């Protein structure tokens, strides 16, 4: 898989590598499909993780491990959407806002997870070149994917917070294509957020497991 780490072309003086380009193009498709609430968002997300896993495996073990986690969450998301798609009138998941308890749980998980992962990265420097922002992006991505799997509008907010760090970090570390893609992510996130927000306010909300009638 060495060709995945070879240079595809140069853009604005930045060297674009095949894995960075392919993985992030698939990531953009994933986000667009998520906006449309298509079940295909999860297989494409899995494929994106697989491409990056193949590129990093045997070279950047920590990065490969992170992609393995992303692929696992993508499988969970596919299962969750497959189960919930019949709960709405149009055959797709019905977006909703998270409950106060869910928001608190996700914020706590993001905070504790970021600290734990950053300390792991610092203890094993080979896992990351920049432990704290890398941990923030990794944990934020997992939280965003989990919220998306649950059909929560808040997943778009999580992606915006990831973008705020992801754009400068990718440019700083030479992943120019990732940096450009994260800028486009930002625009897609705003449009997707508006669409899910409006849909969450149409019609009755789906019943939550364990919630009182």
From TrEMBL:
It is found in: Cell membrane. InterPro entries: NMN_transpt_PnuC. The chain crosses the membrane at residues 12-33, 40-60, 104-124, 136-162, 174-193. The keyword DNA-binding does not apply. Keywords: Cell membrane, Membrane, Transmembrane, Transmembrane helix, Transport. GO terms for cellular component: plasma membrane. It is a multi-pass membrane protein. Coiled coil: none annotated. Its main location: membrane. Pfam families: NMN_transporter. GO terms for molecular function: nicotinamide riboside transmembrane transporter activity. Belongs to the nicotinamide ribonucleoside (NR) uptake permease (TC 4.B.1) family. This is Nicotinamide mononucleotide transporter. It comes from Streptomyces echinatus.
């Amino acid at each position: 898989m060495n060709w995945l780490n070879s240079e595809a072309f140069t853009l604005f003086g930045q060297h674009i590598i095949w894995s960075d380009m392919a993985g992030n193009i698939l990531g953009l498709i994933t986000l667009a499909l998520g906006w449309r609430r298509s079940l295909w968002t999860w297989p494409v997300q899995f494929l994106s993780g697989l491409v990056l896993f193949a590129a990093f495996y045997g070279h950047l073990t920590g990065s490969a491990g992170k992609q393995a986690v992303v692929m696992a969450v993508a499988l969970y998301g596919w299962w969750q959407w497959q189960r919930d798609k019949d709960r709405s009138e149009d055959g797709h998941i019905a977006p909703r806002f998270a409950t106060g308890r869910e928001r608190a749980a996700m914020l706590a998980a993001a905070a504790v997870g970021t600290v734990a992962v950053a300390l792991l990265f610092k203890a094993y420097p080979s896992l990351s070149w920049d432990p704290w922002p890398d941990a923030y992006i990794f944990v934020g991505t997992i939280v965003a994917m989990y919220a998306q799997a649950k059909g929560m509008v808040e997943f778009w907010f999580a992606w915006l917070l990831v973008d705020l760090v992801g754009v400068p970090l990718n440019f700083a570390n030479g992943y120019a294509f990732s940096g450009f893609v994260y800028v486009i992510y930002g625009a897609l996130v705003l449009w997707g957020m508006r669409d899910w927000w409006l849909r969450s306010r149409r019609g009755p909300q789906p019943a939550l497991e364990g919630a009182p009638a």
